[in-house]
Amino acid sequence: MPPSELTRMVKARQLPAAPVVIEANANERAALAARFGLGAVETLRAEVALEQKPRAIRASGRLRAAIMQPCAVSGEDFPVAIDEPIDLRFVEEGSHALPDDEDAEIELEADDCDEIEYAGEMFDLGEAVAQTLGLAIDPYAEGPNADAARKAAGIVKEGEQEGPLAAMLAALKKD
To answer: What integer pLDDT is reported at residue 108 of this predicted model?
Structure first.
């Protein structure tokens, strides 16, 4: 795996008492924009509290970012504000015992879905924040000029019709 654009290593055995604040600098924001196919990441700030739990470290907080995202229809960049909760668990690599029978079903708890494994004495909280940003980006977001771009391309939205019959039906609806 290539190195993260937003590396913030935290010692697993000496968790900070105060929430960890991660603010991406200009180079990190530019690298994240390239990674996620964005026009820009204008701001990125996360505040994350870390808490030691049995067999895991819980990371909870909030990610706020301002990005310039390409419209799914026109391709033009438009501003998007991201305000996303962070709720992750960091677990030591190999701490999950798999069943001996490879055909056995594994039941996952809701908490298991947002687990990130780490090896050694440190984990990368910055990469977790970067992944949270990536998951918060709507790949189908439409900018303010999406309808104009559709119309210029001759694309009709589902449920809309164009032509003489559509005009007559629209006139009947108004009466």
So the answer is: 47
CB 90 within 8 A of CB 12: yes
Contacts of 32 (CB under 8 A, 6+ apart): 5, 6, 24, 38, 41, 44, 130, 133
Structural domain boundaries, residue 34 = 9-95+105-153
In a 13 Å sphere around the CA of 104, the CA atoms on its Cβ side amount to 9
Kindly state whether residue 2 falls inside one of the protein's structural domains. Answer: no
Q: What pLDDT score was predicted for residue 130?
A: 96
Q: Are strands 56-70 and 77-92 parallel, antiparallel or unpaired?
A: antiparallel
Tell me, yes or no, whether 1 lies in a domain: no
In a domain, 53, yes or no: yes
Q: What angle, 0 to 180 degrees and rounded to 10, lies between the N-to-C axes of helices 26-36 and 125-136?
A: 50
Q: Work out how many domains the chain is built from and give that number.
A: 1
pLDDT in tens, 50-103: 999 888 999 999 999 999 999 888 889 999 999 999 999 999 887 654 444 555
